[in-house]
Amino acid sequence: MVESDKQGSSGESPAGNRQTEQGGESLEARRRRLAADLATRGGKVEPREEGRERRQGYALAVKLSSEFIAAVLVGAFLGYLLDRFAGTAPWGMIVLLLLGFCAGVLNVLRSTGAVSTPAPGQRNSSWKAKPDDE
Predict the structure, then answer these.
(1) Residue 63: count of CB within 10 angstroms of its CB
(2) Radius of gyration (Cα) for the chain, nearest Å?
(3) What confidence tens digit (pLDDT) does each residue in 67-118 have?
C-alpha cells in the first residue's frame, strides 16, 4: 500500500484518530500538559501515600515470614534435641518439624486475621455439655 492510502483526509493516521476518539486527547496534548505541570512544581514530586503503604506491606511480609520460619526452626531444633537425648531418630525431628510447620501456619493466619483468637469466655463453649430436654 502507498503511505497516502493509509492516512485519512486530515493527514493523521487511522490509529491516531482512534486514539483521539478513545482517549479524549492526543498524546502530544497530554505530554504538553504534563510538562507544564512539572514546570509549575519545579520538577519535585511530592511524597505519596503509596510509599508508606509499600513500606507497611513490606514490614508485614517480613513479620509474617519471620514468624513462620521461627516456628519451623524451633520445631526442628526441639526435634533434634529429642532425637539426640532420647534416641528416637528420626521420628522426633519429623514429628516436631511438622508441629512447628503447623504452628507457623497458625501464627501467620492469626496475624493476618484469617483465624481469630477465641475470647476467654468462649474458648471451650463447644465442649460444654448441652442441657437435656427432660
Answers:
(1) 12
(2) 32
(3) 999 999 999 999 999 999 999 889 999 999 999 999 999 999 999 988 877 6
Task: Specify the pLDDT at position 83.
Answer: 95
DSSP string, 82-133: HHHHH--TTHHHHHHHHHHHHHHHHHHHHHHTSSPPPPGGGTTGGGSPPPP-
* 100 contacts 80 by C-beta, under 8 angstroms: no
Number of Cβ within a 10 Å radius of residue 72: 19
For the chain, the maximum distance between any two Cα atoms, rounded to a whole number of angstroms, is 97
Domain limits, the chain: 14-46, 49-114
Nearest to 108, CA basis, from 57, 70, 75, 52: 70
**Grid coordinates given for 9:** 483526509
127 or 26: which carries more pLDDT confidence?
A: 26
